[in-house]
Amino acid sequence: MSVTVQDVLERAAQILEHSGWCQQYSHRSSGESCLYGAILDAAPGSAMDAVYEVRERIGVMNTVGLFDWNDAPGRTLSEVLAVLRIPGHCECEMDGDQRRYCASCKAREEAE
Ligand SMILES: [Zn+2]
Fold first, then answer.
1. Alpha carbon of 46 to ligand 1 centroid (Å)
2. Distance 64 CA to ligand 1 centre (A)
3. Which of 15, 87, 92, 98 could hold 38 in an S-S bridge, CB 3.0 to 4.6 Å?
4. What is the extent of the structural domain holding 55?
């Protein structure tokens, strides 16, 4: 069974809504997770493609940038959920560790 990157991000949004969101830690013992931790929990195989997609959406170069974005003072859960739920941006499918690129990501890869 394959899922799309957007499926993984929607699942991450549901994890944050259900278990709570935090800063500074990827997971807390009380159940909350940060943006990155929720994506890891949501991905059936490798989370790299979903992490890469979110990095593109928030415009950071690396995963440390993603942590900094999550941990920024004043950051809110609704901003995090909004990034996860941008619709129609990416339809890549993830089949285990294999990513099948959607048309828009394929065009972006070829342009680089
Ligand atoms: Zn895509």
1. 15
2. 22
3. 15
4. 3-111
pLDDT, greater one: 95 or 47 = 47
pTM of the model: 0.83
Q: What is the rounded CA–CA span in Å between residue 68 and residue 100?
A: 29
Q: What is the pLDDT of residues 89-102, one digit of tens each?
A: 678 887 777 888 88
- Rounded to the nearest angstrom, the distance between the alpha carbon of 50 and the centre of ligand 1 is 9
What does the pLDDT look like over 19-35, one tens digit per residue? 999 999 999 999 999 99
Domain count, the chain: 1
